Amino acid sequence: MNLVINGRLITRDEGGKGYYEHGAVAYEGATITEVGQESALRAKYPQAHIIDAKGGVIMPAFINAHTHIYSALARGLSIVGNNPTNFYEVLDGTWWAIDRKLTLEGTRASADALYMDCIKQGVTTIFDHHASYAEIPGSLHTIAESAKKFGIRSCLCYEVSDRDGEEKCLQAIQENADFITECQKNQDPMLAAMFGGHALFTISDKTFDRMVAANNGRTGYHIHVSEGMNDVYDSLQNYGRRPVQRLQDHGILGPKTILGHCIHVNTAEMDIIKETGTMVVNNPESNMGNAIGICPVLQLHKRGILLGMGTDAYTNEETVEIVRRHMRSEAVPRSTRIRASAVAPEHPLVGAAAALGVERFVSPTTSDMALMAFPSLKMGAGDSARSHTADEYVLRSEVEQGVEGYIRYIAELAKRY
User: Which residues contact 73 (CB under 8 A, 6 or more apart)?
Assistant: First the structure.
């Protein structure tokens, strides 16, 4: 018998006490035998091997309900020539560029790195959504080997997408199907499988039908939904349905399915999610980092929808820590609160500017626009290069041109709403 003592104990025992200022945990092997007051458990198990928590917090481990092993080695990475101005460019220029180069060797290294981070941060269960389009077959089995090595409970899937052509898409579908079969055969309590899909704007109806056929009702699905507005626009323009409605049409939703993000779902879609018992995973740091919006977690919670938390990608704070580790001087960020602000190119705000031939670019300065929970842009008179300089100025002629341009922009925008 082992006894973890000298810690503040937090439990999830609905029928008991939730917090012990001086708590302890008795366990044997992989089974927790009892939790409670330290003095009581010391008296009950006088021969137990003592493990000192040194005044720390003793609590159930964390579950990361949406993560990407393929991104584990990308923290702090800078890709030459990759300067994204919207979410699609973030995907295409960063994450898709990485997963198109990821081999089985790279997948194993990424998995090892992520699992080591999990242990350090108290995460013992992950739901991973993997992509390694350079070498698809065997990638989930490779991750599973790493999971066993580190003892992390893992639910794995492969990201099906049409973005790299039919051959890669079919390989991705088969990888999911094979791993589901492997998990069913082995019945390992530390490993499980889901059927992965990237996002609706990269998955055709034909591919959805193929996924459902390959799965054959064996498990749930893990898919990004309405992470960016481009997901919503694509579904409406090409299929006449909102994203959650498309998923319902194909039988993707249900108690075993996880929807990642759900930032831009409307109330009707929330009702469908509730009625089907589908789970939603919020990834707040990633959402802010990509400037794509805020998941309506309060509305989802009020409807009784099961919610989880995920990381999805690295954070500004993690990036600061990477910088600090490689500097002798002290590095203090002015702010990690202000995030990049971008609007999808398909959005009417951008479309109206494009129709008028207005130059669009990312501002070189941070802006409180990044804190707004809705699409926004700045439009002003003068040369932006003079902005925030000691001798900043705007010519009268530029102001007059700016006013005229603003009026034309509003008129063009009105046509699109």
Answer: 106, 109, 110, 113
Name the residue with tokens 């590095």: 331
State the average pLDDT over residues 211-218: 98
How far is residue 245's CA from residue 251's CA, in Å, rounded to a whole number?
A: 10
d(CA 273, CA 303): 9
Which one is predicted more confidently, 107 or 336? 107
Q: What is the pTM of this model?
A: 0.73
Give Cβ neighbours of residue 83 (< 8 Å, ≥ 6 apart). Answer: 93, 362
Nearest-5° angle of CA 69, CA 70, CA 74? Answer: 110
**Residue position matching structure tokens 């899909």:** 197
Q: Return the SS3 of 178.
A: helix
Dihedral of CA atoms 238, 305, 220, 291 in degrees, nearest 10, equals: 50
* Alpha carbon of residue 302 to chain centroid: 22
**Residue 148 in this model has a pLDDT that exceeds 90:** yes
> φ and ψ at 22, to 5 degrees?
-125, 80
DSSP string, 275-326: HHT-EEEE-HHHHHHTT-----HHHHHHTT--EEE---S--HHHHHHHHHHT
Q: Which of 258, 262, 192 is closest to 226 using CA atoms?
A: 262
The answer for residues whose C-beta is within 8 angstroms of residue 132's C-beta and 6 or more apart is: 70, 99, 102, 103, 104, 106, 107, 139
DSSP bridge partners of 192: 155
Residues in Cβ contact with 119 at an 8 Å cutoff, skipping those fewer than 6 apart = 150, 152
Return the ∠ at Cα 244 (arms to 178 and 87), rounded to 5°: 85
Structure tokens, 98: 């990485």
